[in-house]
Design brief:
Helix content is 36%, strand content 23%. By secondary structure, the chain is of the alpha/beta class.
Length: 362
C-alpha cells in the first residue's frame, strides 16, 4: 500500500494505526506536497517526515516540488476558505500524482495521512481519493482514525515523539489569511544576510537537525516551549543628501518613527560613534564596530554579506547598552554626513518557540 504523507504529526499516528489495521501489508511512504510554501518549510517538513518514517521502519519516496503546477491547479480559488474548493483541487492534484506513483511502483492501493488531519474535511478527502484512484485501477483506502479520541491520541503521540508541529497547513493563501491581522507574514521573511532569525523556518530546521543527530547517538533530550520577545526589521532605507548609503542594522533596532530626518556635521561624530536624540538613533562606523568584535571582518562588505549571528548581536548590544535596550544601532562604513533621512519599519511582538534541552548524560 502506498501512503501519501503530508506531515509527521499526521503521518506518525496514522501509519501506526494503519499497521495495526493491516498487519500483513507492506507500507511505502510518498511525500508529495508542492502546496507547501515557502520551499524552506517544505524541506523542514520532509526532514521530520523522514525521521518519523525511519522510526516506523517505512521506506520513503520524495515527489517533485512543482509549486508552479500547484499554483495553476488552484488558480482563481485564492480567496476560498479552508475546506473549500481550493482544498478540493489541492487534494485532487496531490492524490492523482500519488495514484500514478502507486501504479508506477506496483502498489495496488493508496491512502493519505491527510485523512487524520482535524483541519481537513474527511468526506472531501475520501471523495478525492476515490476519484483519483479509479482511473488507474488503484484501490483507495480511507480509514477514519479521528474517531473515539483518535485526534487526542494523535497529538499525545506527536508530543511524545517530539515531532515538528507546524502552525499552518502549508498553503500560501491559507497562511496569508491566518496572518491577516498581523501586518506581515513571518514565514515568508528571510534576510539577504542569511542571519538565522529567532523562530524562523531556518531556526526550526537547525533545531530538528540537531534533534535528529542526538536521537541517532542515543542521547537524551527534551523540547521545552518558551515565550520571548521577537523582532523583525520589515524595511529600511537610509540616505545622505538624497543618496542611499549602505548600512547594517543590528537586531532589536526598533524604529518608533517610520521617517526620521536630521542634519549631521563632521564634528558630531566622536570616535566613530554618532548619537541622535530623534528616535534614540546610534550610528557606529565600521572601524569602531570592528574593534568591538576584535577585527572579525576584513572589510565592510564582508560584514554586510555575513554579519554576526543574532545571538552575538544581542550580546554586543547588551554589553554596551544594557538589557532591554531597543535603540536602533546602525553600522555604516563611515559615519553619515549632511542631510540624513531614514525610512524604516520594524515590529516587536510576543512569540513562542521550542528549545532543545540536553539532559545530563548528553
Amino acid at each position: 500500500m502506498l501512503v501519501h504523507i503530508c506531515c509527521s504529526v499526521d503521518s506518525h499516528f496514522f501509519i501506526s494505526e494503519l499497521k495495526k489495521l493491516y498487519p500483513k501489508e507492506r507500507l511505502v511512504g510518498f511525500f508529495y506536497d508542492p502546496n507547501i510554501h515557502p520551499y524552506a518549510e517544505y524541506e523542514l517538513r520532509y526532514l521530520d517526515v523522514k525521521r518519523s518514517c525511519d522510526k516506523l521502519g517505512l521506506s520513503l519516496h520524495k515527489g517533485e516540488y512543482d509549486f508552479t503546477l500547484w499554483m495553476q491547479a488552484v488558480r482563481g480559488l485564492e480567496d476560498e476558505p479552508e475546506r473549500g474548493a481550493r482544498c478540493e483541487n489541492c487534494f485532487e492534484m496531490r492524490l492523482e500524482e500519488a495514484a500514478k506513483f502507486a501504479l508506477k511502483i506496483g502498489e495496488k492501493s493508496l491512502t493519505t495521512t491527510l485523512l487524520t488531519s482535524p483541519k481537513k474535511d474527511f468526506s472531501q478527502l475520501e471523495n478525492a481519493l476515490r476519484a483519483q484512484c479509479s482511473p488507474f485501477g488503484v484501490e483507495f483506502i480511507a480509514p477514519d482514525f479521528r474517531k473515539n479520541g483518535g485526534t487526542q491520541r494523535q497529538f499525545e503521540l506527536a508530543k511524545k515523539e517530539m515531532l515538528y508541529h507546524q502552525n499552518y497547513c502549508g498553503c500560501l493563501y491559507a497562511l496569508a489569511k491566518q496572518r491577516q491581522g498581523r501586518g506581515f507574514v513571518d514565514e515568508l521573511m528571510s534576510p539577504l544576510s542569511h542571519q538565522i532569525l529567532p523562530n524562523s523556518i531556518e531556526e526550526r530546521t537547525k533545531l530538528f537537525k540537531e534533534l535528529g543527530k542526538l536521537e541517532k547517538r542515543g542521547l537524551k533530550f527534551k523540547l521545552e516551549r518558551e515565550k520571548f520577545l521577537n523582532y523583525r526589521l520589515l524595511s529600511a532605507k537610509i540616505t545622505a543628501d538624497k543618496k542611499p548609503i549602505k548600512a547594517h542594522i543590528m537586531f532589536y533596532s526598533h524604529f518608533k518613527l517610520q521617517k526620521s530626518a536630521f542634519t549631521v556635521n563632521l564634528k558630531d561624530g566622536q570616535g566613530g560613534v554618532l548619537k541622535i536624540l530623534k528616535d534614540e538613533l546610534v550610528f557606529w562606523d565600521f572601524e569602531y564596530f570592528n574593534g568591538l568584535v576584535r577585527r572579525k571582518f576584513k572589510d565592510f562588505n564582508e560584514l554586510l554579506k555575513k554579519p554576526l549571528s543574532v545571538e552575538k548581536e544581542i550580546k554586543l548590544r547588551t554589553k554596551h547598552f544594557g538589557a532591554y535596550n531597543l535603540s536602533p544601532i546602525i553600522i555604516c562604513e563611515r559615519l553619515p554626513q549632511g542631510k540624513i533621512e531614514i525610512f524604516a519599519k520594524s515590529e516587536i511582538y510576543f512569540d513562542t518557540r521550542e528549545r532543545l534541552v540536553k539532559e545530563a548524560n548528553a
